[in-house]
Amino acid sequence: MEDSYKRFTRVVENYRRYRPRYPQQLIDLLKAECGLSPDQTVADIGSGTGFLTELFLKNGNRVYGVEPNVEMRSVAEALLSSSPLFTSIVGTSEATTLADHSVHMITAGQSFHWFNPEPTHQEFLRILVPRAWVVLVWNLPRNNGERFSAALDALWQTYIDSGDSFGRRRQVPDYVTRFFEGGNIQEKIWTTIKFAILKR
Hints:
The chain is α/β, with parallel strands linked by helices. It has 2 domains: 2-139 and 172-199, Vaccinia Virus protein VP39 (Rossmann fold, 3-Layer(aba) Sandwich); 143-169, no CATH class. It has 8 helices and 7 strands. The longest helix is centred in the last third of the chain and has 13 residues, at 147-159.
């Protein structure tokens, strides 16, 4: 896992410059589906450069950005340090350092597939309040007809999954289902974003 944390050091500038931001639609849906309100505390696990964290801060939430990679964390701190609601945490999904039952929602943007499942599951249960939410978010590439995106889509279907366009299959991945032990998983898919939600 240590290698997984360090591997992003060499690409942090590309993340900062080219990774797409998350849409306001995500906050709107979490308000409707999960009762998200500004008085709730969010733990953004594997928070990276802070793009998902930023969305919740704009909603008025206190957010703990938990990130093991020092370079990624530094970018987020530079981006978000002006917000009194933001706390940068040196930690991992398995060891967040957060207090017991201290957060109302855990989020993971583009990062859940890197987590070590068993210790992460125990840590999530430890830091969540009862009947809390875990929200997993992935941005998806989009074939908009331009040469590059069309070529990337063709590459995906040739070498990864011939029946799938950019990983847009609707079923929840097996590793997500196993992690949540068959719990109440809801999945939403938009044109450029995909996320699965679990209510504990």
